[in-house]
Amino acid sequence: MFRTEVQVAPSGLALGLQDNVVTIGSCFADVIGTKLQQHKVDVLVNPFGTIFNPVSVSLLLKAASGQPYDFEQHLVQNNGIWYAYDLHSSFSSPSKDDLIAQIQQRLQTTSEALQQASLLIITLGTALAYKLNTTGAVVANCHKLPSKNFTRTLLSSEEIILAFEDMYSLLKMINPQLRVLLTVSPVRHIKETIEMNSVSKSVLRVMCHQLTQLHEDVLYFPAYEIMLDDLRDYRFYKHDMLHPTETAEDYIWQKFIAAYYDKEFSQFTQDWEKVQRALTHRAFHPASEAHQTFLRRALKQLQQLEQKYKISTAAEAAQFKAQLQ
């Protein structure tokens, strides 16, 4: 044994294909959310774009849960484009009214998803945040405005927990059955220096531990520990030496579904990954009888999976049928 494997205890959730999910937070929320989407789960992935700090995450979830918040008072114009301090830069427009409409539409979509979801996954990136000097409010994004407009601050675990508790009570009002899964992103934020990244991740980890002790339906998934301790080798990092490789993401994904999903879903993922491989197959001779037989067999397998797991395979079937002659 040349490694220390992180064992993730079964959670008892036993989620299935019919359980809806919402993910929010850092880029790791995109990774898990996209994996779920690829495996036919109804999931809303990072509806407000990448959000790194937990106070901003809590603010957006509170707004989506119905707490009044005047986003218009937190907009800024830069080079003719309007941005929202509380959201990712992908939410922007030359028109202020259009940006407000974008935000309201996304809040409505997120509210509906949260009411139907069985699980909310919150991935926290950093406890280092920036406060707007004119108001003292924590911002989710500085939108490349002058650094003199902001003050960098290290959020305390007490400050983060207070924001979470306010948000949590609102979530439970709109969906009493919702479970919350906290993760700390394994991506290091070295632009804040390696030393401060360690401090930041420590604050987040302590906060997650405290919240799981306070609430029975708040869980923690150790993606951070899996990456740093289990996959303790730079071959599991991309060229930037910060983000996990596809191999590392797949390994963490397998740990995730083993802990939170039922055995039927695990079997489905194996069956579905065969379909995904078939979809990426490119034949040297598309009109050959061998390839046409391959396509017909794939369509039959799709039909069987659709009946067995009660899923829609129309999009995948269309891709195969387009190649039939």
Give your account of this protein's structure.
- The protein is α/β, with parallel strands linked by helices and 325 residues long.
- The protein folds into 2 domains: 20-261, Rossmann fold (3-Layer(aba) Sandwich), CATH 3.40.50; 264-325, no CATH class.
- It is 47% helix and 15% strand.
- It is built from 10 helices and 11 strands.
- The protein has helices spanning 27-38, 54-64, 96-116, 157-174, 194-214, 223-230, 246-260, 263-280, 289-309, 314-321; strands at 20-25, 43-45, 75-78, 81-84, 92-93, 117-124, 128-132, 138-139, 150-154, 179-184, 218-220.
- The strands form 3 sheets. It has a 5-stranded parallel sheet, sandwiched between helices.
- α2 (54-64) packs across α3, α4 (157-174) packs across α5 and α9 (289-309) packs antiparallel against α10 (314-321).
- The protein is globular and about 70 Å long.
- The N and C termini lie far apart (53 Å).
- The mean pLDDT is 94.
- This is GSCFA domain-containing protein.
- Its EC number is 3.1.-.-.
- Residues 288-315 form a coiled coil.
- One of its GO terms (molecular function) is hydrolase activity.
- Keywords: Coiled coil, Hydrolase.
